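debug: dumping io for the single-chain case to check the tokenizer round-trip. Nothing else runs in this session.
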Amino acid sequence: MKEDPLHREILEEHARNPKFDKQLATPTHEGTFQSSKTGNTCSIELRVEDSIIKELALRVQGSALAIAVASILSSELIDLTLENAENIRQQINNHLEGEGSANLPGELCVYESLKRFPERHDCALLAWRAMGVALAN
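debug: decoded output
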């Protein structure tokens, strides 16, 4: 199976130039997830005001794919409500598990290609799982 060339280009750009490598001074939500399958780790900090994500920071120790999708997450979730962010997280998870198709906004379209590669799902979901932990805390 082949990846869509545009999706590959988006992932490679985010892997080379991630947009999240910082630490927040006053996060309102924090979470860390470590994959038992790969050992990759992602920590996330969110600053939320009036249920809207105003700032987001991630630290990823993992593959280029894990770094790329974390960067995409950080680009796409700023200024979304927590409810919208959680809906996107669930939609991506369901999409990769084969439950329907995803019509995801912006650069999240890469998940259309990633669905075809189950061996990459763990890395593709790392940052989203960390976000789930942060939102549950």
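debug: round-trip ok. The longest helix spans residues 121-136.
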